[in-house]
Amino acid sequence: MKNSKRWLTMPQTWMTKEMSSNRWPDLPEGLKDDPRLEFKKLLYQAQLQVVTTRQLADIEIAKEDFKANKAYEHVRRQALYTAYLDLAKEQLERMQARAEFVEKAASVIGGAYGVILGLAFNINKDISRIPPTRGLAPLFFLGLSLTLAAIYLAYITSPRVTPSSSRRPSTLDVDAERLRFIELTTNIVLQRIRWLQSAVISLGFGVLSLPVAFLNIQDNLVEDTVAVVVSLLIIFLPSIIIPSGTALLLAAQSIYWRFKFRNVWPKTSQDAAKLFGGTPDRWELLDEGQWKLKDGSATKVDTHSLLAGGYNDQPVTECYAWVGTQTVTTASIYRDLPPSRYASRVADLLTDDQQLNPEHVQCTIRLK
User: Fold this and answer.
1) Residues sharing a CB contact under 8 Å with residue 180, sequence separation 6 or more, in sequence order
2) What are all long-range contacts of 25-28, with beta carbons under 8 Å and residues at least 24 apart?
3) pLDDT tens digits for range 16-34
């Protein structure tokens, strides 16, 4: 009986230890000529059954978790996409409402002005009191505003983005289609935005010129013509500025930035080390507007309000486009690039650099 009790207590101790994990039990050793062979076989089968049951239970729990997470992700993505698409569609509705507002305002103001002009200069009562030529200026500008708003709304142009071929979409395809739809609606809104901007300016000129017919001034054909030409140039200023204005603005900002830092920009590597940090042997002037910190040990670099871009570690584990202080192993500091406009561009270039950043570690933008 003592032996049988010892046999009963041994497996319980063993199973308590093994059941703390889901690992498979080890095969029993020394089975040859073992009087407890049948018992060990039954014990091993029982252990396998316990582990198998627990493994199956864990699999079922994992399957349920996977289904729940998948359902949650589906609902979340659906809500997110719906919000994106609704926002994109609202862009069209808002821009259409704005253009219709300009049309209605020009029509109402023009009609009211015509009535007031007719009452003020009633030709039937006094044939000599006819409206002055300058009184047509408001009608001209209001009519131009109405025409430009109508062009924005009704002039048909081909979209810049074409839908992709229809096939069973994957997750990446759905993301791409969402982005394409947003891009398509944005292009529809912005493709003829200059016409609407000019329409608003023309409406403003029409409103401002309403009193000219009632002012005690003499008509002068030359002066009136010059005023109309200048007004037209101002009205169509968006069409002139938008295509080339970005380049001019960037050039102006670069010139201002260069002028702002002309006195502090280092001339030698010793000056660069004194201003930015590190040692002179690490700094190299690539061109007149860019100092480069050669690859080496991690160095704390202070850009003093200038834009810089660089990496940390080799291979790269961190990437930064920043203003201020940052610890990096290699970097470039730019004198002529205003941070507010160029930080994202520098970050993209550093992220896509195949030679220095082959893993394409995403760059972090840190501006003061």
Assistant:
1) 161, 163, 164
2) 25/51
3) 444 445 566 666 665 566 6
Residue pointed to by tokens 């023009």: 110
Q: Scanning the structure block, which residue is given the tokens 């308590």?
A: 16
Domain extents in the chain = 97-161+171-258, 269-366
Give the C-alpha separation, 160 to 360, whole Å.
30
Backbone phi and psi for residue 308, each to the nearest 5 degrees, phi listed first: -135, 160
Say what the pTM is: 0.45
Q: Phi and psi for 364 in degrees, rounded to 5?
A: -100, 135
* CA distance to 110, 257, 292, per residue, from 273 (Å): 68, 21, 11
What totals of helices (H) and strands (E) does the chain contain, helices first? 9, 8
- The pLDDT assigned to 59 comes to 87
Give strand pairing partners of 39: none
- Give the residue among 321, 328, 320, 317 at the shortest CA–CA distance from 278: 328
Q: Which residue has the tokens 């850009």?
A: 303
